[in-house]
């Protein structure tokens, strides 16, 4: 049975339609140059970036550390993706091109390989939002039910992280 270990809630202002969750020991690394830009998540060594619509100025984020893969949360989401990433130290930070790296107090059990499930919604009051994905310019859905989590932000992301292997 999966158990919640730690939670961190914060906000970030994406820049250049991106923000990343990175292992703080990775320095100025970035996602792989050959990353598939038709996907929302752009992985790299010790990090993953989320592409966001250009209309997103503020993103509210809830990061959760779990013992094993948690159940899917209830409600409708505008999008979701999963990715696996090696975290050599397991100390996390949020990174933007303009804002640099900001450490976050989310506790992970140890360094190692982690699975991350990212889910997000957009604020129907601040849209419309257009897809940032390469080759796609669709208007994005803005399902309700997440108003409290949005708290006035343009986007809310729920990121659930669990270890798949130790370093």
Q: Can you give me a brief rundown of this structure?
A:
This protein is an all-beta fold and 167 residues long. Helices cover 2% and strands 44% of the residues. It contains one helix and ten strands; from the N terminus they run βββββββββαβ.
Structure description:
- The chain is mainly beta.
- Helices cover 2% and strands 44% of the residues.
- Strands 1-5-10-9-6 form a five-stranded mixed sheet, with no helix packed on it. A five-stranded antiparallel sheet has the order 3-4-2-7-8, with no helix packed on it.
- A hairpin with a 2-residue loop joins strand 3 and strand 4.
- It is globular and about 40 Å long.
- The two termini are 23 Å apart.
- The mean pLDDT is 90.
Could you outline the blueprint of secondary structure elements for this entry?
Blueprint: E1 4-12, E2 18-23, E3 41-44, E4 47-51, E5 59-66, E6 79-87, E7 92-96, E8 100-103, E9 112-122, H1 147-150, E10 155-166
Parallel strand pairs: 5-10
Antiparallel strand pairs: 1-5, 2-4, 2-7, 3-4, 6-9, 7-8, 9-10
* Order of neighbouring strands in the sheet with most strands: 1-5-10-9-6
Q: Could you say which overall geometry the principal axes of the C-alpha atoms support?
A: globular
C-alpha termini separation: 23 Å
**DSSP strand count:** 10
Strand percentage lies at: 35-45%
Mean pLDDT, to the nearest integer, reads: 90
Radius of gyration: 15 Å
Given the helix and strand composition, which structural class is it? mainly beta
Total of DSSP H or I helical runs spanning 4+ residues: 1
Task: Give the SSE order as H and E letters.
Answer: EEEEEEEEEHE
Q: What is the share of helical residues?
A: under 10%
* Biggest sheet layout: 5 strands, mixed
């Amino acid at each position: 049975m999966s158990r919640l270990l730690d939670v961190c809630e914060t906000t970030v202002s994406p820049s250049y339609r991106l923000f990343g969750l990175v292992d703080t020991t990775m320095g100025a690394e970035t996602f792989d140059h050959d990353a598939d830009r038709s996907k929302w998540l752009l992985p790299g060594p010790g990090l993953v970036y989320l592409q966001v619509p250009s209309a997103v100025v503020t993103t509210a984020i809830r990061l959760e550390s779990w013992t094993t893969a948690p159940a899917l949360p209830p409600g409708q989401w505008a999008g979701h993706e999963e990715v696996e990433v090696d975290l050599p130290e397991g100390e996390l930070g949020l990174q933007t091109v303009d804002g640099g790296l900001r450490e976050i107090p989310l506790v992970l059990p140890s360094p190692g390989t982690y699975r991350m499930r990212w889910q997000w919604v957009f604020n129907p009051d601040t849209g419309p939002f257009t897809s940032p994905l390469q080759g796609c310019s669709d208007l994005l859905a803005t399902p309700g039910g997440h108003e409290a989590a949005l708290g006035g932000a343009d986007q809310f992301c729920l990121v659930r992280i669990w270890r798949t292997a130790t370093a």
